[in-house]
Design brief:
mainly alpha; 4-stranded antiparallel beta sheet; single chain
């Protein structure tokens, strides 16, 4: 983390007012005023393109639109971004990448992930004075707009996403500044793929500082600690993720794997049981539970779990066949069943 980035994060934690677009650009690695100014000008270019479209489509003055027509401007901004780049979705999460893709002359150029697209819409909407927040789910992020008594949900990954229904999914509403935590979480994942685990751990920690209720960041932090052999620390992070999200299947499974590593096999099975209870089709939990049951010499239980894996994913048959045959053989020849104490 650079000094500029650390200073901005410190200001956020102290609840000082910061410019969201500047902080988002700083997280992209822009550490000088010259580089920041270059991308702010690119944002100006996108914003000005929208304003030109707005003027051409409405007989009202821009001043009138800004004073009375917030919902109309929000929808036209959404449509402008989709019309200029109709194939929008890819994995870009950094605002710089999203800006460059949005300005690319190729109309088929994809732009960004839900984090990247929501970041772009948010900073442009805030320039227009829109009352925007963000909605955060297990694996998705979108905008919410308030106009007087009306509320509009805006999914930037869906061409029909303006004023969309949430379909019963659980989302939590946060101020726009929480976007930074999601960028940091995505950056941490990218750091892990480059084997920069120290950088990833730092990013997850910072994401949690910005949003202490961010279950995914705790889960990802636990993964780094587990990789580094800090299983007790990993279990604490997975447990915190589960406290924040009681239906976090992956965190239950990950905690089970960490418990395996410290030979808490009964505790591991309890976590796999909970994961399966939440998602009866969660293959990884059946596979891991089957392997632990082999260790505990519950060979019939192991066979049942491996059969379930094959039932759920027939393509895994060859992969699981050897393990299943081994379990059947051990069960037949030794026949000992280990029961976890209650």
């Amino acid at each position: 983390m650079t000094n500029l980035e650390a200073k901005l994060i410190q200001d956020i934690r102290a609840e000082k007012t910061v410019c969201l677009e500047r902080v988002l650009l700083t997280l992209c690695g822009l550490h000088t005023e010259g580089k920041l100014g270059e991308y702010i000008r690119k944002l100006d270019q996108i914003h000005n393109g929208f304003l030109q479209r707005l003027k051409s489509q409405s007989p009202l003055s821009l001043e009138t639109l800004r004073k009375y027509m917030a919902g109309t401007r929000a929808k036209l901004l959404f449509e402008y971004l989709w019309n200029t780049k109709p194939k929008r979705c890819n994995s870009n999460f950094l605002l710089t990448e999203v800006i460059d893709a949005q300005l690319n002359a190729d109309i088929n150029q994809k732009v960004g992930s839900c984090v990247g697209l929501t970041s772009l819409y948010t900073v442009l909407g805030m320039r227009e004075g829109l009352d925007l927040t963000i909605l955060v789910g297990d694996s998705h992020i979108l905008n919410r707009l308030r106009v007087n008594e009306n509320v509009f949900n805006i999914d930037n990954t869906d061409p029909l996403g303006f004023d969309c229904e949430l379909s019963g999914k659980s989302f939590f509403e946060h101020p726009p500044i929480v976007l930074l935590a999601h960028v940091l979480n995505s950056r941490g994942i990218a750091q892990e793929k480059l084997d920069n685990f120290k950088g990833a751990e730092e990013d997850y920690h910072t994401a949690i500082q910005i949003n202490p209720g961010y279950a995914n960041a705790y889960n990802n932090l636990g993964n780094v600690k587990s990789r580094n052999g800090d299983y007790s620390g990993a279990i604490e992070d997975y447990s915190r993720a589960i406290q924040l999200n009681h239906a976090f299947v992956e965190a239950f499974c990950n905690r089970g794997i960490a418990k395996e590593s410290i030979e808490d096999y009964c505790g591991a099975i309890e976590d796999y049981d909970k994961a399966i209870g939440i998602d009866p089709d969660y293959i990884d939990a059946y596979c891991r539970r089957g392997m632990v049951k082999q260790i505990l010499e519950d060979y019939s239980g192991a066979v049942a779990d491996f059969n379930k894996v094959i039932e759920l994913d027939p393509e895994s048959t060859q992969k699981m066949l050897r393990t299943e045959e081994q379990a059947r053989h051990l069960w037949a020849t030794r026949g000992k069943r280990f029961l976890c104490p209650e």
